[in-house]
């Protein structure tokens, strides 16, 4: 038996019982009831008339009040909802409540996820800021305590404090950038430009840091003609810089970083940044683009990054509606590649 049938059956049963009892009581009160009159035809007629009247009035009030109560409940539950039909049908109402309950459960689980994400994010941020803040504070206090007059250490301490402040600055700048991309404040402004040329410019900028580890920067693409893409020049410069910087940071001495730009489809190119450095184990792949995620917590931080480099890269590529891929062999090297739209001309 469905819920609807059950409710109907129960209400019919109880209303008949209540009507009979009410009729009998009324007849007793009005002095029409006696043992002899039970078998009287007139009494039977009166009883049936009374029963119909009580049942009709009862049914009307029950329906009226029940309808209003159910409507009130329905209104209350779906008040802030844009459901257009408010029902007093029990089965519909129950299914609507279930649907509503499922939606709320989903919302609560999403809110919990966001809350966890927020908590992790603040924890990570505090952790990242703590070390450079503590370093700069302690070196400056040591200088103020008298080390400023010690010619042997004063410059060294100032340099260390300066480096720590520099690192703080880098973290805040990266955070600012990522927030702007995420909030849509920093919009993607696409223009046509030569990605080949852009890569060469970035190589020039990173030449010194690459030479410190004797890492060779190589640009290779099918033929040496310009490759015009349609993208946000400044942001793609940021993507390439972050990837090349990482290939140097996590690259081996005397290693190579190679950029290969190839046609992928009629309308897309793929840019590959390959190094023969430390490599990354596969288990880290799906978390690599999270903010502050590091493969080797101590080693990576020593390399000096903000922990936001790849998160920024992913945000920029996503904002372009393009894809980023990673392939890596631990101990052999890594390849980060991303797609871009070719310019129409
Ligand atoms: P970080 O500021 O620590 O470099 P990123 O977001 O740029 O932060 O990178 C996240 C982590 O991914 C790094 O800490 C490093 O462990 C790993 N990683 C990134 N690029 C490479 C690479 N080319 N080779 C090896 N490991 C890499």
Helix vs. strand class:
alpha+beta
* Percent range for β-strand residues: 5-15%
> Which CATH class of the largest domain applies here?
Alpha Beta
Q: Please give the count of helices.
A: 8
Give the ligands present: adenosine-5'-diphosphate
State the order of secondary-structure elements, H for helix, E for strand. HHHHEHEEHEEHHEE
- Largest sheet at a glance? 5 strands, mixed
The CATH topology annotation of the largest domain reads as Heat Shock Protein 90
Task: Please tell me what the overall shape is.
Answer: elongated
Q: Nearest-angstrom radius of gyration?
A: 38 Å
- The CATH superfamily title of the largest domain: Histidine kinase-like ATPase, C-terminal domain
Tally of DSSP β-strands: 7
Arrangement of strands in the largest sheet: 2-4-5-7-6
Number of domains: 3
Question: Helicity level, as a percent range?
Answer: 55-70%
Low-confidence stretches: none
Level-2 CATH architecture of the largest domain: 2-Layer Sandwich
Q: What do the pLDDT scores average to?
A: 87
Cα distance spanning the termini: 70 Å
